[in-house]
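Researcher: Let's walk through a ligand-bound prediction step by step. First, I give you the protein sequence. Second, the SMILES string for zinc ion. Third, you return the three-dimensional complex as structure tokens. Ready?
Model: Ready.
Researcher: Here are steps one and two:
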Amino acid sequence: MIDLLLPHTCGMCGRHIQSRNGERAEICDECIKALPRTEQATLKQNSTEMTVLDQPAQIVRAAKTAHLQRAGAFLFYEKQHPVQRLIHLMKYADRPEIGRTLGRLAAQEWRDSDFFDEIDIIIPIPLHSKRLRERGYNQSEFIARGIGEVLGIEVDTTHVFRIRNTPKQALQSGDSRKQNVADAFAVLHPEQMYHKHILLVDDLITTGETMRACLNAMKAFRGATFTVFTLCKAL
Ligand SMILES: [Zn+2]
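Model: Step three, the predicted complex:
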């Protein structure tokens, strides 16, 4: 019945997929098998960690102050690869459930590693309220909720905010991008986050600027430690 009411296609290959247990599926079984996994849950000093850290003094300082524990991406993101279509649908075409599906999958596949150990709370990188209104959802929040459902950890969207609506990053050069994102974030009631181990979740890491700017704002969470999870790592 649900298939008649809600015909649905795989976000990667575009084929029609049947609902599973009365729930719409976002990605078909074949495409789930074919996802370009990074295996970074068990790989320390991986390319995502390097992207977050391996930059000038500013970042090293931010990481030290922010107590970065681990960073990892679930999938590699390459232009022209079918995963690009999947991420595009998730971000721009009103299919945020793709994010939840992939968040769940990552948590299921990584839960036997120590990557998600001892995390107290999950915080998705926020969108600016204006962009949130335009888009109707924050895709990173859906990824975070998928992870939270599997691990039984709360997702928080009330302590970190985006206070500047940065222009689309792809349109800018490196320096102006850095400048634009540097003070884009602010926190509220930091004392409620003191000494927590926070899982910070984003959809795609390219230069790492956004992640570092957010970590920098979260320095106000005294004694907190951070693990960074991104759904995709740009190649
Ligand atoms: Zn498919």
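Researcher: And what stands out?
Model: The first strand starts at residue 68 and ends at 77. Residues 10, 12-13, 15, 27-28, 30-31 surround zinc ion (CB under 6 Å).
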